[in-house]
């Protein structure tokens, strides 16, 4: 019979055959962004013209990159230890929010972009993609 330690280690170590759960979840959110981005771009395109549509696309792109970075950080930390995974979840969230803010401030300072459209689309797409993934996980739509 296997020892409890080896069973516990096997449960927390990602399999070499499949992607880690965190990477799968971030990939699913990116897939949903393909549907969310055009909706936001149309809304801001109607409200602010082409500059609003472009800014909305940039806002969604920033969020998508954020989710991909988050999935990578979490799956890498899970491969090391459960303690690092917890630390990555807590501190990684705040670091990634800081990266979103810095990216948006940098883009806004370098280009003449519709800041309102970019900011609102980033917040809306973040919450929408996160909510859709949570509903998907609860309903076990994707394994």
3D structure, described in words:
The chain is globular, with a radius of gyration of 18 Å. Helix 2 runs antiparallel to helix 5 (115-138) and helix 3 packs antiparallel against helix 4. The chain has one domain. The two termini are 29 Å apart. It is built from five helices and no strands. It is an all-alpha fold and 143 residues long.
| Low-confidence runs | none
- State mean pLDDT (0 to 100 scale): 86
Instruction: Give the distance, in angstroms, between the N- and C-terminal Cα atoms.
Output: 29 Å
Helical segment count: 5
Number of strands: 0
* Proportion in helices: over 70%
Give me the secondary-structure category: mainly alpha
The rounded Rg comes to 18 Å
User: What is the beta-strand fraction?
Assistant: under 5%
Largest sheet: none
Order of helices and strands: HHHHH
How many discrete domains? Answer: 1
The shape, in one word, is globular
Topology:
Layout (H helix, E strand, L loop, with lengths): L3 H9 L8 H28 L1 H31 L1 H29 L4 H24 L5
Helix pairs in contact: 2-3, 2-5, 3-4, 3-5
Which features does this protein show?
143 residues; mainly alpha; globular
Compact summary:
The chain is mostly helical.
């Amino acid at each position: 019979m296997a020892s409890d330690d080896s069973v516990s280690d096997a449960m927390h170590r990602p399999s070499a055959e499949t992607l880690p759960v965190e990477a799968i979840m971030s990939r699913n959110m990116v897939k949903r962004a393909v549907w969310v981005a055009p909706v936001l771009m149309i809304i801001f395109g109607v409200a602010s013209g082409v500059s609003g549509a472009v800014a909305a696309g940039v806002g969604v792109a920033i969020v998508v990159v954020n989710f991909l970075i988050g999935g990578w950080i979490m799956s890498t930390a899970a491969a090391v230890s459960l303690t690092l995974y917890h630390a990555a979840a807590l501190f990684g969230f705040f670091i990634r929010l800081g990266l979103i803010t810095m990216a948006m401030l940098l883009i806004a300072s370098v280009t003449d972009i519709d800041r309102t459209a970019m900011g609102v689309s980033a917040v809306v797409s973040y919450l929408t993609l996160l909510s859709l993934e949570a509903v998907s996980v609860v309903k076990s739509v994707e394994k």
